[in-house]
Amino acid sequence: MRRPTLEAVAARAGVSRATASRVVNGQTTVAPHIRDAVLRAVDELGYLPNPAARSLVTQRTDSIALVVSEPGTRVFSEDPMFSTAIRSASMELDAVNKQVVLMLASSPTSHARVERYIAGGHVDGVMLISMHGADPLPSALSRLRVPVVSYGRPAVPVDIPYVDNDNVGGAEAGVRHLVASGRRRIATIAGPQDMIAGQDRLTGYRTVLRDSDRRSIVAVGDFTRESGAVAMRQLLRDDPGLDAVFVANDLMAVGALQSLRQAGRRVPDDVAVVGFDDIEAAKYTEPPLTTLRHPVAEQAAAMVRLLLGLSEGGPSAPVILPTELVVRESA
Amino acid sequence: MRRPTLEAVAARAGVSRATASRVVNGQTTVAPHIRDAVLRAVDELGYLPNPAARSLVTQRTDSIALVVSEPGTRVFSEDPMFSTAIRSASMELDAVNKQVVLMLASSPTSHARVERYIAGGHVDGVMLISMHGADPLPSALSRLRVPVVSYGRPAVPVDIPYVDNDNVGGAEAGVRHLVASGRRRIATIAGPQDMIAGQDRLTGYRTVLRDSDRRSIVAVGDFTRESGAVAMRQLLRDDPGLDAVFVANDLMAVGALQSLRQAGRRVPDDVAVVGFDDIEAAKYTEPPLTTLRHPVAEQAAAMVRLLLGLSEGGPSAPVILPTELVVRESA
DNA sequence: GATGGGTGAGAGAGCGCTCTCTCACGAGAG
DNA sequence: CTCTCGTGAGAGAGCGCTCTCTCACCCATC
């Protein structure tokens, strides 16, 4: 006993399959009483259109791939940015009745699989969250004839519209806050330099330090708490006299705070700390973290709109969202 | 200029469409030289099977829905359990070439949408992450003729195989640890009582307290940091003399630690704290958190295997995974 | 009263694939 | 040398839907 087909609905309503199809798809060129008859039949039979059959002829799938490329296990699970972005994009797509196909690509094998999948026409569009510079996916996907947008500026110059936040400007604002509060020796824990966010936030730091005649003191982390803790210990060895540190994301700032505590430095009295992202956890550190807020959910939603607009020939200019300094107790 | 079809491949290789199909689908009843000719044609044309056409006849979609039901915005984004589970399930499904369709259902509207989607035959199976007791989805989905498995025991008794961790046993171990270290007045911050994890962890707490002749002191949170902070303040008001608190998850424990700090209590000297989950952040609290670890990734992977087994008539007995006490400095 | 245009419904051709059924052919047995 | 059987390849039906094309019918117009 299989599922009812449109044929069955048409038969029950006493109309042709074509008319039933028109009603199901909401066309208006159907007389009201016929329309009602069809809808009643749909209801009685519990009819639901077969998506495969529909896709076959319409050449649409009504689903969108959300590709998260090269997610380090820890980072993906721990950094709430991912889940926030995924959630927001998902809700935005739900609203227009598109489904989200989630693809996590970490190995060359899985990159190839993703590429084949997209090329195979399983989805109508792709949202790419790719942070890593060496990632082959942005260029690979941009060659396909599927609309692609990116969350964050792609690391390699490639013709993909994207939505990003103002990483440089945010970093500048954070470091300027430290300068303004009289800090002299301002270090930074930078993010990975093969990621745009890592690069840009370091650029912002350097710009302000240069303009205010201070020396850069740089350690590099990989956006995990652990790397933040390690980098902070190294900075304290390199320059025991530092009195502030700008950390490229909150997760690393959490690690840095722990290292400072273990080294006996008081925050903010001895060392001021500014983070980046304003994750929820930033309110619960000891002391609460001064950081730069950027609208992750809005960025993801904007990305969805960009993608949907693209399929309708809309504009494909990058969207850059602003960043806001949130002052708490750490600086 | 559309994509090459199997017809084109067959023509190029000089065989029938049926033979080309056999080769593409890896059947062995094809002579080697013909097989090679077809594969060469596939390669030259860049042929990829049309998934809609294939699904239409095979009645399979090779994709699995991952339904996260009723995720409070904050909890979903902040609790790393979700991303860990999603990641693990996704990787496990990738390995068998199944795609993950992610559906977040939070409102009655979206519940209906999910149900229609599943009933519509878009997917071959469903993995349900539903924590809320009043959630209509478990029973709704179990009525469909699609295999369904659940991450965590469903709150309402319903015939869905599931994988869960030993919440009761874990809570007992945590509280026993507090008893063994000589704590007298042991409170708890319980999780929401319409969630199984909330109920079971409270049950474990109560059992041990009863067995050791202590009085229960209970506040209830909703698994967010904020609610943990609020609950802790309330407990301190209710019983200023408490010397330990068992918190039903780490996120709430983070909030509780903050409230204890603000109230001037030292941890663990004045008040010992035990959490639950062992999220990464537990290592970075001040002081680091003693907690109960359970294997989220393994639980998700086991859920995938359960689902895949189900479609092949495998067993559908619930799987319960063990929990382990991780002693750090907070208790 | 004949003609023209507009509207609503049906007929039927595919979309690209899988799979059953059929058939051709060659080898081995009698 | 004929018959049987097994193996490998082709023919063709159909999966369930959309959409174009066609046509019937009604009303307004001259």
From TrEMBL, chains A, B:
One of its GO terms (molecular function) is DNA-binding transcription factor activity. This is Transcriptional regulator, LacI family. The keyword Chaperone does not apply. It comes from the Bacteria. Gene3D superfamilies: 3.40.50.2300, lambda repressor-like DNA-binding domains. It comes from Nonomuraea pusilla. Keywords: DNA-binding, Transcription, Transcription regulation. It holds the Pfam family Peripla_BP_3. Residues 4-58 form the HTH lacI-type domain.
